[in-house]
Amino acid sequence: RQSVFQCAIDGPAASGKSSCAAAVARTLGFAYLDSGALFRCITLKHLRRGTDPTDWHDFTAATDLRLTALPPLTGTLDAAPVRPRVYMDGEDVTAAIRTPAVNEHVSFIAAIPDVRTALLAKKRALGGGIDGTLPVPGGYAGVVMDGRDIGSTVFPHAQLKVFLTAAARVRAERRVREAGGDRDLIEQELVKRDALDMARAVSPLRKAGDAVELDTSAMAQGEVVVMIVGWVRDRMRSGN
Ligand code: CDP
Ligand code: CDP
Ligand code: CDP
């Protein structure tokens, strides 16, 4: 029997995964785990080095990756997202992993099978193991992890799997509202990254068969959070 409640949130770029996942986790007192940040870190490290490592698995596994815990939720569910700080080999790379250069390269690095294998082990270690029977660092009763392959590959037995989508135009507008930039260029970047993420051979972006799909194009962040928290509570009550 699973002792850790696992909630998997997957979907295309800027569909609202991390902001909603973080608010859900903070509402429930669960750990929030941003798996995209791990791929972004490995991409940043590679871009700084400039040459391909001889062994991508060693290169990835030897990288010390840490995500800070988020404070309990106060205030409105629609508040600007609070994001964990991200440390790579002891350095705070929270801002450095969100640059255009990392956006442009991350899907290529994330398609390398040895990178995925090394980060799969990391993701499971952070989230209670493949089936939620191992303890979670920090002692949390549950985890919310967002990414592309969480419900399909990382936590195949997750008690709740959500696949968040939204129209590409809406996703680009949301990114612009948060961080600025040119809407059309951002939309092109998101669509290109989604195509690469869906096309790769190893654990591509796709909805798990047992995931609930939610189109959030016309939904506020707070509405999405309330729905997902409700689903988690239903499943916890039904003892599953
Ligand atoms: O925040 P955004 O949706 O733009 O991206 P992210 O979640 O930070 O993920 C960045 C990239 O990492 C994705 O485009 C994927 O190429 C890769 N990724 C992945 O392959 N598998 C995951 N579980 C999470 C991210
Ligand atoms: O993690 P992902 O790339 O899927 O998206 P995100 O970074 O969580 O969301 C991108 C932006 O959309 C954030 O500024 C959210 O606050 C916003 N958002 C929204 O306006 N409405 C939603 N229903 C969900 C997210
Ligand atoms: O606090 P600091 O500005 O150093 O870092 P942050 O706010 O956590 O993230 C750095 C930048 O990346 C901010 O401009 C965020 O809005 C942006 N960001 C983003 O565009 N998409 C994300 N999924 C996360 C952060």
What can you tell me about this protein's structure?
By secondary structure, the chain is α/β, with parallel strands linked by helices. The chain has a single domain, classed as P-loop containing nucleotide triphosphate hydrolases (Rossmann fold, 3-Layer(aba) Sandwich). The chain contains nine helices and eight strands. The chain has helices spanning 17-28, 35-49, 56-61, 100-109, 113-126, 150-154, 168-179, 183-199, 221-237; strands spanning 5-10, 31-34, 65-67, 86-88, 91-92, 142-147, 160-165, 212-215. The strands form two sheets. The chain has a five-stranded parallel sheet. Strands 3-4-5 form a three-stranded antiparallel sheet, with helices on one face. A hairpin with a 2-residue loop joins strand 4 (86-88) and strand 5. The longest helix is centred in the C-terminal third of the chain and has 17 residues, at 183-199. The protein starts with a strand and ends with a helix. The relative contact order is 0.23. The model has no long low-confidence stretch (mean pLDDT 96). The structure holds cytidine-5'-diphosphate (CDP) (3 copies).
